[in-house]
Automatic annotation (TrEMBL):
InterPro entries: Ala_racemase_N, PLP-binding_barrel, PyrdxlP_homeostasis
Source species: Oligella urethralis DNF00040
Superkingdom, natural source: Bacteria
Function of the molecule: Pyridoxal 5'-phosphate (PLP)-binding protein, which is involved in PLP homeostasis.
Matches recorded under Gene3D superfamilies: Alanine racemase (3.20.20.10)
Residue ranges of every copy of the Alanine racemase N-terminal domain listed in the record: 33-235
Identification of the protein by name: Pyridoxal phosphate homeostasis protein
Signal peptide: none
Family: Belongs to the pyridoxal phosphate-binding protein YggS/PROSC family.
Lineage: Bacteria, Pseudomonadati, Pseudomonadota, Betaproteobacteria, Burkholderiales
GO molecular function terms noted in the UniProt entry: pyridoxal phosphate binding
Length: 251
């Protein structure tokens, strides 16, 4: 894991802002509509400190245990009081209780069993958790995310959970060099969001786009991009081998 030096990370944030501006301009959007979630997974807590120093008070982590450990390491003695950790990766139901204490938003809700447990812990904590429903928009047999055809019914069922608020949808696009295939995944998510929004006006956000494809995601309407390697350095495990994509796509 090669975490870039703080000066280099600062430069990368600036470069990212420029690339976002150019992509927004192409489709007549304002960069103000867009939230960058720096993804600090697999990097030491220093990465979070550097993001914070650059003005990013929300960061994304994909594993709940790692998120909790970093939270504990950083938030001692009342430091980083306004830092928020967003869980962007899959969560097992038996770890749902951690979200009440450590997580400000959850971007990978994909089962009713998990939703029911999460809701129970949020009721106990007296907090409403903003959640994004993860959708499997690539036609691959991905492990995570709901099938497109089941997503609207799922959102209907989530309406019963008093302490979860579905604010948007999330996806990982196909891991492909073919830009049209990637774009189609983002388009599918946007169309689903448009349909869901007719019935539930609060379902507004689109969490899509990462280091390799955020410009396409912006062109297709992303409101939240989740960017790690482009900012902080490459991780040891390349995305195509990481567990969130199926093995048969590995190159
Ligand atoms: C790691 C990860 C990202 C960021 O990927 P990068 O290649 O580091 O930009 C985005 N979303 C999820 C769910 C991730 O796990």
């Amino acid at each position: 894991m090669a975490l870039f030096a703080p000066e280099k990370i600062k430069e990368n944030f600036e470069l990212l802002a420029q690339r976002i501006a150019v992509a927004c301009e192409r489709v007549g959007r304002s960069p103000d509509e867009l939230r960058v979630i720096p993804v600090t997974k697999e990097f030491a807590p220093t990465a979070i400190e550097v993001a914070y120093a650059n003005g990013y008070k929300q960061v994304g982590e994909n594993k709940v245990q790692e998120l909790v450990d970093k939270y504990e390491a950083l938030k001692q003695d009342g430091a980083y009081a306004d830092l928020e950790l967003i869980l962007i990766g899959h969560l097992q139901s038996n770890k749902a209780r951690f979200l009440a204490d450590y997580v400000s938003e959850f971007h990978a809700l994909d089962s009713l069993r998990l939703a029911a447990r999460l809701n129970r812990f949020m009721v106990e904590a007296g907090r409403v958790l903003p959640v994004y429903v993860q959708v499997n928009t690539s036609l691959e047999q991905s492990k995570y995310g709901l099938p497109v055809a089941e997503t609207l019914d799922f959102i209907d069922e989530c309406a019963a959970f008093s302490h979860l608020r579905v604010v948007g949808l999330m996806t990982l696009a196909m891991n492909s060099k073919n830009e049209e295939e990637v774009r189609q995944c983002f388009r599918t998510l946007r169309q689903l969001r448009d349909q869901a929004q007719l019935k539930y006006p609060t379902v507004r956000r689109l969490s899509m786009g990462m280091s390799g494809d955020f410009e396409i995601a912006i062109e297709e309407g992303a409101t939240d991009i989740r960017v790690g390697q482009m900012i902080f350095g490459s991780r040891d495990i390349p995305n195509e081998l990481a567990h969130f994509w199926p093995e048969d796509r590995a190159r």
